[in-house]
Structure formats: structure tokens, C-alpha cells
Design brief:
Helix content of chain B: under 10%
Number of strands of chain B: 11
Shape of chain A: globular
Oligomer: heterodimer
Structural class of chain B: mainly beta
Largest sheet of chain A: 6 strands, mixed
Radius of gyration of chain B: 13 Å
Chain lengths: 110, 116
């Protein structure tokens, strides 16, 4: 069945360093979404990518969707302590089936 | 922004009893609601998808007779865990979307269920 793999599981960085998390699907996605879950909180929608090769930016966050629509990445430039949390990708198949990646827990040391 | 509430936020029940969890969209009409289960330090596992007025679609391995989902209105969906057992203890999170299909989901704060 469909499965979305996400790496790394954990990432510890010094404030100011960059951070990247990757998601891969064995089959083609219709679109992909990214969410952030702060410690003790619930997931909050960040962005959705639909087009092949799409790149979107939100301030220090850059989201990419692969040409084959099977992989995606989230890159944070110059991390801040407010970036702490778990970042999940949600691969979507046929525009109606969601599969969340296992998440990448980001810890930022001040 | 869109707000989704869940009630209760936590519940402790005895083995064999049933527990109902409510999920409400407070400021928008939720065409589709999703129910997830999240184990400690793990990802969200989709349990079922429900559209208002129709039967929920359950994911493989999720017992529909055990996890009863009702989506009677555009602002309310309920999940009832029937005959709960300790292994049902988990964090249950609902989310809602204002349209059908793969649009952004707004998550509720979750319900911590502990079955003793």
C-alpha cells in the first residue's frame, strides 16, 4: 500500500544553522502538505504543493515538490528557537487519501 | 483562522465502557472530517474519513464497529470508542476541511484517552 517515508527522525541544530527534512513516496502523489506540531500542541497546516517541481517559500522556509511528484523537502534557513517542533509531511493520493510521514523532530539549541 | 474544538480534552474510563469524543468546527462548515490516532512520539495514523451525511470511510485495520463515527452536521463529528480496552489508550485528534478532497486540514487540540 501507499506509504510516506520521512527522514531524519530527529535533528538537533545550533540556532542559526539550517535544517532540512525529506519525504519520499513509492508511488506518485497528487499533492503534498506540510504541517508543524509544537510540543504539546496539535498539527498546524503550513503549505500545500500540487505541481511537479513546485517550489514555495514562506520567509525562512522553502518547500519543494519533486519533478516526479514522489518526494518533497522542507528547508529552514538560519533556524531560530521558535522553529522547535515536529514537522510532518502528508502525502496525498488521488486528492483524497492522506498518509502522514513519521515526522522530523527539530530541536534548536540557543 | 479556522478553529476546531474537541471535547473532552482528556478522559479516563474503565475497561468495557464506551467513550464519545466530539469534534466541532467553530467558524466554518466542515465538509470532511478526519479522525487520527497518535501514539507517543509517533506520527498521525488516519483512522477514518467522514463526509457530512454519509457513512465514514475507515482505513484498513480500523474496526468500524469499535470506532463509531457520526458526522451528522457540517459542524460536528463524533467518535465513539465502544467497549474500550487498555490498548485503546491513545491520543485521538480530529481535523476538518472546508471542502471535500485534499485541502488543508484544521486540527483540533486532541483528546487523551486512558482506559484502565
Amino acid at each position: 500500500g501507499q506509504q510516506v517515508m520521512q527522514i531524519p527522525q530527529y535533528q538537533h541544530v545550533q540556532e542559526g544553522e539550517d535544517f532540512t527534512t525529506y519525504c519520499n513516496s513509492s508511488t506518485t502523489l497528487s499533492n503534498i502538505q506540510w504541517y508543524k506540531q509544537r510540543p504539546g500542541g496539535h498539527p498546524v497546516f503550513l503549505i500545500q504543493l500540487v505541481k511537479s517541481g513546485e517550489v514555495k517559500k514562506q520567509k525562512r522556509l522553502t518547500f519543494q515538490f519533486g519533478e516526479a511528484k514522489k518526494n518533497s523537502s522542507l528547508h529552514i534557513t538560519a533556524t531560530q528557537t521558535t522553529d522547535v517542533g515536529t514537522y510532518f509531511c502528508a502525502g496525498v493520493y488521488n486528492f483524497n487519501k492522506f498518509y502522514f510521514g513519521s515526522g522530523t523532530k527539530l530541536n534548536v539549541k540557543p | 483562522g479556522a478553529v476546531v474544538s474537541q471535547h473532552p480534552s482528556w478522559v479516563i474510563c474503565k475497561s468495557g465502557t464506551s467513550v464519545k469524543i466530539e469534534c466541532r468546527s467553530l467558524d466554518f462548515q466542515a465538509t470532511t472530517m478526519f479522525w487520527y490516532r497518535q501514539f507517543p512520539k509517533q506520527s498521525l495514523m488516519l483512522m477514518a474519513t467522514s463526509n457530512e451525511g454519509s457513512k465514514a470511510t475507515y482505513e484498513q485495520g480500523v474496526e468500524k464497529d469499535k470506532f463509531l463515527i457520526n458526522h451528522a452536521s457540517l459542524t460536528l463529528s463524533t467518535l465513539t470508542v465502544t467497549s474500550a480496552h487498555p490498548e485503546d489508550s491513545s491520543f485521538y485528534i480530529c481535523s476538518a476541511s472546508g471542502t471535500s478532497g485534499a485541502y488543508e486540514q484544521y486540527f483540533g487540540p486532541g483528546t487523551r484517552l486512558t482506559v484502565t
